[in-house]
């Protein structure tokens, strides 16, 4: 899967974008100039594709092939835009959504997807940039669950939250700084649970938009849980209340 998930060369990547391939990320060699690379950069920005400028050594590590300074990583799944995602959510009796604010570890991401799928989450929203890639490791860690749950990619988590709130979906942010306990929250309503990144937690600008901030009770000396474990506890509290 990993070999077939990459496209090499400027023209090949331009063609992939124009043919609407689901591109996870584009790597461009630093300092690369020319009309063709300018065309590629314009296409990337127009289509809001995640990209980064990297040294030649990084590209050589990604592939031994003649990459011409550009490599695109193709996603093994189709990503939904917010409008397509909304149509799916509207079919749910009581919408149950998971928002991941820049979860960057592939294995955490895969484990979360697996738990989300088995706990009945209707769909997952991730940010286009600073999120873990969807690759063979993600697929493997999710035990294939990634193929069974809609994943929506957005430019900014905040915009997705505004959209969900317009659909009367409450935004519940998981935060260690919250005063309210998870077990004191009503999850028998349309909700979107927000989990933050491994290092920084939920972005302050996202927290400010939440309808409620809640925390897990911690009784040991260690003050936090792995994000995939914490997410599993949150999701199954929703399940417990709705059964």
User: Quick one: CATH superfamily of the largest domain?
Assistant: SPOUT methyltransferase, trefoil knot domain
Largest sheet: 7 strands, parallel
Which CATH class of the largest domain is shown?
Alpha Beta
CATH topology of the largest domain: Alpha/beta knot
Distance between the termini: 38 Å
Q: What string, H for helix and E for strand, traces the elements in order?
A: EHEHEHEHEHEHEHEEEHEH
| DSSP, total strands | 11
So what's the overall shape?
elongated
CATH architecture of the largest domain: 3-Layer(aba) Sandwich
Strand content: 15-25%
Question: How many helices in DSSP terms?
Answer: 9
In round numbers, the mean pLDDT is 90
Give the tally of structural domains. 2
Poorly predicted regions: none
Structural class: alpha/beta
Task: Annotate the secondary structure layout.
Elements: E1 6-8, H1 10-18, E2 23-29, H2 35-46, E3 51-54, H3 56-62, E4 70-74, H4 82-89, E5 96-101, H5 106-118, E6 123-127, H6 136-141, E7 151-154, H7 157-166, E8 170-174, E9 180-181, E10 191-196, H8 204-207, E11 212-215, H9 227-242
Parallel strand pairs: 2-3, 5-6, 5-10, 6-7, 8-10, 8-11, 9-11
Antiparallel strand pairs: 1-4, 2-4
Helix pairs in contact: 1-2, 5-9
